[in-house]
User: Fold this.
Amino acid sequence: MKTLVVYDSLYGNTAQVAKAIGSAVAGESQVLRVAQANPSELGSFDLVVVGAPTQGGRATEAMQAFLARVPALEGARVAVFDTRLRAKWVKVFGYAAGKIAERMEALGATLVTEPEGFIVEGKKGPLAGGELERAGAWAKDLRPD
Ligand SMILES: Cc1cc2nc3c(=O)[nH]c(=O)nc-3n(C[C@H](O)[C@H](O)[C@H](O)COP(=O)(O)O)c2cc1C
Assistant:
C-alpha cells in the first residue's frame, strides 16, 4: 500500500501529527507539506491522508487553495484530520477536517474513516499529551478498503 500524507502547518503541530501518521501507516508512505505536493498526483496513491490546522473553522488558506486544484478523485480512498483547540466555544465554527472531507467527497473520493481531530493546548501548541500516540494508532488502522 502506498500512502500520501499531505499537510499544512503554521506552528509545527500539524506537521508533527502528519509525520506520526506517515510513520505508523501500513506500507510505504510519503509525507509532504502542501506547498510541495502536486494536486494531480493524489489519484496515484492507494490512500491519501489530508490534514490541516483549523483556522476560523476551516483549513488554512494554502490547504484550501491546494484542494481547489485537485482534479476529480473518483475511486480514491482518503482519510482526513485536523488540529484544533479543546475550547468548547470554537465548536460553533466547525473544524478543518469536516470541511476537507466535504471537498474530498465532492471530488468523488471515499472516506475510509471518520474525520479526526487532534488537540493542541493553545494556538501555537503544544499538542495535548498522548495526541501523537493517538495519531499513530489512528493511522495504523487505516486501510484503503
Ligand atoms: C488565525 C487562527 C484561527 C484559528 N481558529 C481556530 C478555530 O476556529 N478553531 C480551533 O479549534 N482552533 C483554531 N485555531 C487554533 C489552531 O487550530 C492551532 O493554531 C493549530 O492547531 C496549530 O497547528 P499548527 O502548529 O500546525 O499550525 C486558530 C489559530 C489561528 C492562528
